[in-house]
Design brief:
The structure holds three protein chains of three kinds.
Chain A: H1 2-6, H2 10-25, H3 34-59, E1 71-80, E2 83-89, H4 93-116, H5 123-141, H6 146-164, H7 171-201, H8 208-216, H9 222-239, H10 248-251, H11 257-266, H12 271-278, H13 280-286, H14 299-316, H15 321-341, H16 345-373, H17 380-383, H18 392-406, H19 412-426, H20 430-455, H21 470-485, H22 496-500, H23 504-513, H24 522-544, H25 554-557, H26 559-569, H27 574-587, H28 592-607, H29 610-629, H30 647-650, H31 655-680
Chain B: H1 3-23, H2 27-52, H3 56-86
Helix pairs in contact in B: 1-2, 2-3
Chain C: H1 2-9, H2 11-36, H3 40-60, H4 64-88, H5 104-126, H6 143-152, H7 155-176
Helix pairs in contact in C: 2-3, 3-4
Classes of the chains: A mainly alpha, B mainly alpha, C mainly alpha.
Chain lengths: 681, 99, 179
């Protein structure tokens, strides 16, 4: 069985090869390349199961169970100076768990896509991108050094971009792809800074294990470690869609539904969670997660906690079923991040494990509804309703998935969410336990709303709903089965999952803070289930029986309520903040004052007559032009509606001006450097 | 001889070339200025080669000459094409990339 | 300069110094005229002077093969090509018209600063460093050494350069072709 552990590098390699094969020969194959993708992912899945079994045998067989089955030296990647970087794989409980989850969900999504995207114009390309994504994710989770992790991380980002914009002819889709890419890239700056800092802090090594050990041993100055931790946290916030950079994930639903299930629910978005879990030595030391008397607050937990509530609120006001699920994903990712922040490491990755199954199940269920029930629409209020009769399989799987998400005993979500709450309380983070409980009630509420709008009431669409074919219901049933049983590996006080994923880094971190794993508590479980059931009953009564009549139409009658609703519906105006305020000010830092003038000119142009404003704009243009650019452009092609862009004028199209700027700034920078050197020596 | 004599002369030629490339309107003149820059580099290469007692500097200079020849060939072809399409080779007037 | 005092001690170096400064003076003046002249053909001729001066410098540094190549390729081919370019584009050949664009002063300032930065750096790095032009091989010729070096150490770059020339040849024909 150790063959599987030492040869686990095959798992990422096979989809990578599949990508190349599909790209080169896909279009000539009888099934347009999809068969290559399915076979490759199946092979990886079988290998991942073998690896998991081998790992479990090893983990339960005595004293060496904690040592990772790392193969840190597949080949020498590169070296500079004294440090060599080897390409290697690192197999431990966390990696094995993610290898299993990723290959499993990827296989389900591949099968689902066979039917869902049948006849798509970029069918081959789609499967190539899926293969590349799978390879990147598998590379990342089995990475032994932080550069390899970065490689997989960015690879996933590219694939996410390609797949969100799969139907790029529609402007909204390509916009969403760009937004997702740029937002996550914003966080990735933090990743680069963090990884560079840890490289130097750990004594010039990219080896993740060594970095963690160095952090735990206290060799790093705490201030620098804290900066590195905050930078890495930026990457987590971007990739795992945490507040306040979560805005890209709901838009990412523009991609095909199986992509949303695979990338934007089950696997890629948990990369941030994985990053924290993998660098737990760095994070726990930087943020003093286990330090007693740490007043129960740290950045990781706060970001997670805020995200839970914020995203759950947003999920209530969505009309699009996929967006409900997207915000739910954001909220659940918040649970994982919060769990890591409060020191419940096992609970966090356990929640990652169970969440992958039921959220993929829910997304594929939504896909099934739109494929066969609502004529390719995702609008719950317009095109769905009453589908339980026509689509019984989808209905049952969706309801079970929702129950698992809400945390109903004994489904998967119950066990993992319960562990997070108990862990938060056990480690002294009581405030976050309360947030978690409120979040659980909200989850139950919005999922009840979602199920009710989709499957109950009267059918509001115009199609002819029918049950989906077997390629779609098959994965649904399998995922539902997993959504039921996945929690049992750590449920009923068994703690198998905890033994299999036990991590030496985490254990030494806990020993430093004298913290232990939280024991299972029936009382806490009973409390959370009761609260969840109350929430479901409340929501059900509200929608099915129109109970709480005073609440219906409250937003129309009450100004405060309406303002609150608008605030939530506008996504807290975060998008406006990012695009208008932040991006806007970055785009025009040089000419902020001139921009102000122009804004007013534009206002004038919009409100006043076109002719009058043209004169004003012409005047302002000349004035600024004289002052700023000192150019002699005649302003012939200038028109009032273009008056706002200042940067435009720097692009004169004249190469020599560009060259002058290039040489000028180059000389200035070299001159400054020269002065600095002269004075320091 | 002093190494710096050569290097400073090369630096002067380089800067003159930069001035020509930035300030001249006619694109053939700009190409000539670029030749000046490349020559400055060649002088540097050969001076350093002599300084280090190796022929590598001269071999590199040879490569630079080859590349310069290729550059002039392609550059003049582009200039001819611009002239044919716009009846002028003034770089001031080649600003279709204006935003 | 302390170095020039030293250089004047040896008889051979005096001749070298004289030759160098004669060449350098001609090159500096021609280069300045090249970028300021108002006559296009004169600019090409000034360029020729600079290139020939550079060939002379190569001989001073005992790089006679490069010097010959310089004359053949630069003066024989490139300058002639430039002149062809001027004729084919029917450039105004008389004097008098303005050949500079409106950022002349900006360019002058940038070039001046660039020279200042480079000059300071070079003076810091190589002040007083001597270079002697003794041929590298015992036979007194550098050409043989270059041939050996190209076909031993630099054979791959050599092949790449030949591919580059071929590509440039094809590219120039494709771009300039009338169709």
């Amino acid at each position: 069985m150790t063959w599987f552990l030492t040869n686990a590098w095959l798992i990422p390699l096979i989809p990578a090869l599949s990508f190349v094969v599909i790209l080169l020969f896909g279009k000539r194959l009888p099934n347009k390349g999809s068969e290559v993708g399915v076979i490759a992912v199946s092979a990886s899945f079988v290998l991942a199961i073998g690896t998991a079994i081998a790992w479990i045998q090893r983990a339960t067989s005595g004293e060496e169970h904690l040592r990772p089955a790392a193969n840190n030296d597949l080949f020498l990647w590169f070296k500079f100076g004294p440090s060599e970087t080897h390409f290697g794989i690192h197999i431990d409980g966390l990696a094995v768990m993610l290898l299993f989850v990723v290959t499993f969900i990827a296989l389900m999504v591949h099968i689902f896509s066979l039917e869902y995207l049948r006849g798509d114009r970029r069918y081959t390309y789609y499967f190539a991108a899926l293969s590349l994504f799978t390879a990147s994710m598998l590379t990342m989770v089995s990475a032994s050094n932080s550069l390899q992790l970065l490689l997989g991380w960015e690879g996933m980002g590219v694939c996410s971009f390609m797949l969100i914009g799969h139907w790029w002819e529609d402007k909204a889709n390509s916009d969403a792809a760009l937004k997702a890419f740029l937002t996550t890239r914003t966080g990735d700056i933090g990743l680069l800074i963090g990884l560079t800092m840890t490289f130097f802090l750990a004594g010039q090594t990219f080896d993740i294990e060594k970095i963690n050990q160095a952090a735990l041993a206290g060799h790093m100055p705490h201030t620098l470690l804290l900066v590195a931790g905050i930078a890495l946290m930026g990457a987590v916030v971007g990739k795992s869609a945490q507040f306040p950079l979560h805005t890209w994930l709901p838009d990412a639903m523009a991609g095909p539904t199986p992509v949303s299930a695979l990338i934007h629910a089950a696997t890629m978005v948990v990369a941030g969670v994985y990053l924290v879990a993998r660098f737990y030595g760095v994070f726990s030391q930087a943020f003093h997660i286990f330090t007693p008397g740490n007043s129960g607050f740290n950045l990781v937990a706060i970001i997670g906690g805020v995200t839970i509530i914020i995203a759950a609120l947003l999920a209530f006001v969505q009309h699009d079923i996929k967006k409900v699920l997207a915000y739910s994903t954001v909220s659940q990712l918040g649970y994982m991040v919060m769990a890591l922040g409060v020191g419940a490491w096992t609970a966090a990755i356990f929640h990652l494990f169970t969440h992958a199954f039921f959220k993929a199940d829910l997304f594929l269920g939504a896909g099934s509804v739109s494929h066969s029930g609502s004529h390719h629409s995702f609008d719950m209020k317009k095109d769905m309703g009453g589908l339980r009769k026509q689509m019984p399989v989808t209905f049952v799987t969706f309801v079970i998935g929702s129950a698992a998400l809400a945390g109903i005993f004994p489904l998967a979500g119950f066990w993992s969410k319960d562990e997070i709450l108990v862990g938060a309380g056990h480690n002294g983070y009581v405030a976050f336990m309360v947030i978690g409980l409120i979040g659980a009630m909200m989850t139950a509420g919005y999922m009840t709303r979602c199920v009710w709008l989709t499957f109950f009431g009267e059918y509001r669409g115009h199609g002819h709903p029918h049950e989906s074919p077997r390629q779609i219901t098959g994965p649904l049933i399998i995922l539902t089965f997993m959504a039921v049983v996945a929690g049992w590996v750590n449920g009923f006080g068994l703690h198998y999952f905890q033994k299999w994923t036990a991590n030496p880094v985490v254990e030494s971190a806990m020993r430093l803070g004298r913290v232990t794993e939280a024991p299972f508590s029936w009382a806490a479980a009973a409390l959370s289930v009761t609260l969840v059931l109350i929430a479901i009953a409340f929501a059900w009564a509200y929608y099915e029986y129109h109970a709480f009549g005073f609440l219906h139409g409250l937003t129309e009658r009450n100004a405060t309520a309406k303002a609150g609703y608008t605030f939530v519906e506008q996504k807290y105006y975060l998008d406006h903040l990012w695009t208008d305020v932040v991006v806007g000010s970055i785009k025009r830092p040089i000419a902020a004052g001139a921009y102000w003038v122009n804004q007013h000119v534009i206002d004038g142009a919009v409100n006043g007559t076109a002719a009058g404003s043209r004169v004003v704009a012409e005047f302002v243009y000349r004035y600024i032009d004289q002052d700023l650019v000192d150019g002699a452009v005649n302003g012939t092609a200038f028109s009032a509606e273009e008056g706002g862009s200042i940067l435009r004028r720097m692009q004169t199209g004249r190469v020599q001006q560009y060259a002058a700027a290039f040489f000028g700034f180059g000389v200035v920078i070299i001159g400054i450097g020269l002065l600095a050197l002269t004075h320091s020596f | 001889m002093l190494l710096n004599e050569y290097l400073l002369l090369a630096a002067f030629l380089f800067c003159t070339g930069v001035y020509g490339a930035l300030a001249r309107k006619n694109s053939v003149l700009v190409l000539m200025s670029i030749e000046l820059i490349l020559n400055a580099v060649n002088i540097n290469l050969i001076a350093f080669g002599a300084f280090n007692h190796t022929v590598a500097g001269q071999v590199f200079a040879l490569f630079v000459i080859a590349v310069a020849a290729a550059e002039v060939g392609v550059g003049l072809a582009i200039v001819l094409l611009i002239y044919r399409n716009r009846h002028s080779i003034d770089l001031d007037k080649v600003d279709v990339m204006k935003g | 300069m302390g170095g020039s005092h030293l250089a004047l001690v040896h008889g051979l170096n005096v001749a070298q110094q004289i030759a160098f400064f004669a060449l350098a003076g001609a090159m500096v003046l021609s280069a300045l005229r090249m970028v300021t002249t108002k006559n296009l053909v004169h600019a090409a001729l000034y360029l020729t002077v600079v290139l020939a001066g550079a060939a002379g410098l190569y001989i001073l540094l005992a790089a006679e093969f490069i010097a010959v190549t310089q004359v053949l390729v630069y003066i024989g081919a490139i300058v002639v090509l430039m002149l062809f370019g001027l004729f084919l584009t029917r450039a105004p050949l008389g004097t008098g018209q303005d050949l500079d664009n409106n950022q002349r002063w900006l360019a002058a300032i940038i070039a001046l600063f660039l020279f200042g930065v480079l000059g300071v750096t070079l003076q810091k790095g190589f002040k007083g460093t001597h270079v002697n032009a003794i041929p590298i091989t015992d036979g007194g010729s550098n050409t043989a050494a270059i041939g050996v070096s190209i076909f031993h150490d630099f054979v791959v770059p050599f092949e790449v350069a030949s591919i580059l020339l071929l590509a440039a040849l094809v590219g120039a024909v494709v771009i300039a072709r009338r169709d």
